Amino acid sequence: MSRAPKRLLMTADAVGGVWTYAVDLARGLSDRGVRTTLAVLGPSPGAAQAACARAVPGLEMVETGLPLEWVEPDERKVRDASWRLAELSDRVRADLIQINSAALAAEDAFTVPIVVVAHSCVATWWSAVRGGAMPADFGWRSELVAEGYANADAVVAPSAAFAAATARAYDLDRAPIVVRNGRRAPVRLSRPMVDDFVFTAGRLWDEGKNIVVLDRAASQIQASMVAAGPLTGPHGQSARFEHLGTPGSLGPAQVAQLLNERPVFVSPALYEPFGLSVLEAAQAGCPLVLADIPTFRELWDGVADFFDPRDEQALATAVNGVLKSPNHRARLGELARLRARRYTAEAMAQGMLGVYRSIMTSEPSVRGVEVAA
Fold this sequence. Notes:
The protein is globular and about 60 Å long. It is α/β, with parallel strands linked by helices and 373 residues long. The chain contains 13 helices and 13 strands. It folds into 2 domains: 7-183 and 344-359, Rossmann fold; 197-340, Glycogen Phosphorylase B (Rossmann fold). Helix 1 (18-30) packs across helix 13 (345-359) and helix 7 (211-217) crosses helix 11 (312-324).
């Protein structure tokens, strides 16, 4: 008979959006009777991040000291991390493991079923952003990811577009299962829209976020523009912009406060497996102006305005079109808010629970089954 895990071991790092995903998922699973041990990789979580995790019933954080696989330059250390995670799994008596980075499943070290969630990877990033042959440093990392997918009892992706990209990049027999990401909707405060405010958020140093095209378009946009997020990355990447206001990394409450003003939210991303910041903006009722890429079309088609992400003139025209039309702006914001109801933390938890139950039975592999639309 189908059964759910009682104790889940899940990996997460505090550097990117996986932390938000993992804490929201753990909360949803707790409501369904699953206790989670969060194995923290890389740097320690900040005070606000740790506080959010501690507020989840049944969630235990363990700082492992293990490397972030996409930062660590030594392949052997990444492979060793698989064995360390397997040891931790035995210690906490987990009956299932969710690994949020496939490279950490490269070694066949685990004695319980494992689910790998494909949040991003260097191969799909390179294909979307640069194209052509990958550098050697990306090559061995992609090999580890491929081995991790092969070792998984199930592979999950947060959108059908990214599932297809992953299947192409790694020549998978079947695309990963689709369980879309979700967020708990914030309390919506009633405030007037601010006509001259355009906002984006994310890792500003990441070339895949394509913030440079937003900066180039800024001089043609009839509003002030704010881009929140870190300007430097873990490999020494850095970004500087001439026309954007860049307040740096903001906490969840600060971002929510800005979104509650319902600015025009813009994402010019070339690469986005899902886009939690877009979802948060939609939940707040912000009108969305998005790069015309497969992920955003899948999730937001019909409720957002789209533009060619490599064309700053097209971006400026799209944003100005929303700014100049209060009725269109209000309509887009309301449509986005209604669409966001599809992508809830509750639906995400239920979808992942379906995956867990499937692989904890004697049934064949569930790879390729879409669990949550």
